[in-house]
Amino acid sequence: MPPKTDNTFVKLILLGSGDSGKTTLRKQMRSLYGAGFNESERRMMIPVIFGNIVEGTAAVLAAVPAVNEVRARLPAVERAFLTPRRASRQQTLHTAAAKSASDMITGLPSSSYSKIQMTDELAAAIKACWEDAGFQRALTQRAKFQLQCVWP
User: How far apart are CA 108 and CA 95, in angstroms?
Assistant: First the structure.
């Protein structure tokens, strides 16, 4: 006699390397088609979300000098062979607020990103970075450096 099967469930095995989105897909499916998340589960995710925001901002800030180099005046042939000059973040961020915010954010220890409390000061620093043209230019080049998939 064949074993009983339950036609209401579909089992799916997700295979993939780390940080490829397996857990994100599971959570998204649960959110869309399952019972969703209760209040305590949502509250548990707040530090993770804040940590991802700070980590991503720090990653973009670290990439700002490489992405925003001034090489436009050189002919394309010379640019192709030019060794990138690492200008400081301070020279490639445009506003004083973003330069100050950059120092604050990059000064945070990366090991504590998941324990960060989003203070008004930290939120204002992240906002100042986002509003800076140099930061935005680096963000448009995000394929050239490692940035978590949760970022746009």
Answer: 21
Answer whether residue 150 is part of any domain.
no
Longest dimension (CA), the chain: 78
* Residue 83: predicted pLDDT: 42
Helix (H) or strand (E) run with residue 31 in it: helix 22-33
What is the count of structural domains for the chain?
Answer: 1
The 3-class secondary structure across 39-56, one letter per residue, is: HHHHHHHHHHHHHHHHHH
Residue 71 pLDDT level (bands cut at 50, 70, 90): very low
Q: How far apart are CA 41 and CA 38, in angstroms?
A: 5
Q: Quick check: is 152 in a domain?
A: no
What is the model's pLDDT at position 6? 62
Q: Does some domain include residue 131?
A: yes
